[in-house]
């Protein structure tokens, strides 16, 4: 049976925790809004890029000189997984959900006899994957110093990945991140980004474009950019998802702390009354004995 | 008078979306102007000025590259980086120039010409900015 003093201390400590989680929730809410705005602002570019790539892909289909980024290396042996997670914890199941999806993919690829390589963006994902797949990690991108994800950051990651592709280090690349649906729902996804897959274009495409320079040159210029944009979009979605996940996790934590305080208060009052009753009985018993 | 819808977007934000009379763009194979009814056209861009003419005045932006998609009624400019000309600074251009020069030094023989072109474009832009 804890003493009254112990209980009082517990209550105070839980109250402090509640203050912290409450503050974190509010900070996350503010950051979420900014992250959402950034994701929103980047959308027009990504959409147009996708449209242009689809147009070009349709035009370059079957061309023997199309860049390998589009046609693939012709092999399917080595897969690179680019796993984007957050730098910081305390955001519920956000990182675990992404890592779980990546793990499933790794198991599936390994079962099919493929070689798997992993590049992680964000510390949390690396920490979780290192335990089981330490030997597969080929690189890590540190984003600790990045306050707001810029296109430059994504470009750097893309350049690294594209350099490895050009050097023949892998044949297929998958990108893992979390799509922001709402504050309470973030969905981890793992699309293929290399070779670039163009969305199927409807045949109602208007008159053919003229290209300057030719299709292949534009494709060669465009595809690396479209990969960078995919990564950029992923990082932005991730940033928004992370804040969303943190917000709901901290909201839960705040509520749990409140419940705990209620329970402890009840226990505290009960013990206090029990102590008073005991004291009274002692006094009365003493008085009667006289 | 017919107008042409011009969108200028960079990965981070949308800079302009206006109904314009015409747009001048620094295409890879030379400057070109898109007027309403232009033939469908796709070109990569080199560093230079994108000018959007609307209602008798021109809005100018400096882009570091990217590509433009022109159709009969719309132009989409997808710029790698874009800055309104008024906010363009010498430091920004200097930095881009030194990047381009480093790229030229590192470029393989086959890519030398393209890299040199890039350096040249930035030099021109710097001169124009200084003037």
TrEMBL record, chain A:
The keyword Aminoacyl-tRNA synthetase does not apply. It is a peripheral membrane protein. It is found in: Cell membrane; Membrane; Thylakoid. GO terms for molecular function: ATP binding; proton-transporting ATP synthase activity, rotational mechanism. This is ATP synthase gamma chain. Keywords: ATP synthesis, Cell inner membrane, Cell membrane, CF(1), Hydrogen ion transport, Ion transport, Membrane, Transport. F-type ATPases have 2 components, CF(1) - the catalytic core - and CF(0) - the membrane proton channel. CF(1) has five subunits: alpha(3), beta(3), gamma(1), delta(1), epsilon(1). CF(0) has three main subunits: a, b and c. Belongs to the ATPase gamma chain family. SUPFAM superfamilies: ATP synthase (F1-ATPase), gamma subunit (SSF52943). Produces ATP from ADP in the presence of a proton gradient across the membrane. The gamma chain is believed to be important in regulating ATPase activity and the flow of protons through the CF(0) complex. GO terms for cellular component: plasma membrane; proton-transporting ATP synthase complex; thylakoid. The gene is atpG. Its main location: membrane. It comes from the Bacteria. The keyword Ion transport applies. GO terms for biological process: proton motive force-driven plasma membrane ATP synthesis.
From TrEMBL, chain B:
It is found in: Cell membrane; Endomembrane system. It comes from the Bacteria. InterPro entries: ATP_synth_F1_dsu/esu, ATP_synth_F1_dsu/esu_N, ATPsynth_dsu/esu_N. Its main location: membrane. It is a peripheral membrane protein. GO terms for molecular function: ATP binding; proton-transporting ATP synthase activity, rotational mechanism. Keywords: ATP synthesis, Cell membrane, CF(1), Hydrogen ion transport, Ion transport, Membrane, Transport. Residues 4-82 form the ATP synthase F1 complex delta/epsilon subunit N-terminal domain. One of its GO terms (cellular component) is proton-transporting ATP synthase complex. The keyword rRNA-binding does not apply. Produces ATP from ADP in the presence of a proton gradient across the membrane. F-type ATPases have 2 components, CF(1) - the catalytic core - and CF(0) - the membrane proton channel. CF(1) has five subunits: alpha(3), beta(3), gamma(1), delta(1), epsilon(1). CF(0) has three main subunits: a, b and c. HAMAP family: ATP_synth_epsil_bac. PANTHER family: ATP SYNTHASE DELTA/EPSILON CHAIN (PTHR13822), ATP SYNTHASE EPSILON CHAIN, CHLOROPLASTIC (PTHR13822:SF10). Belongs to the ATPase epsilon chain family. This is ATP synthase epsilon chain.
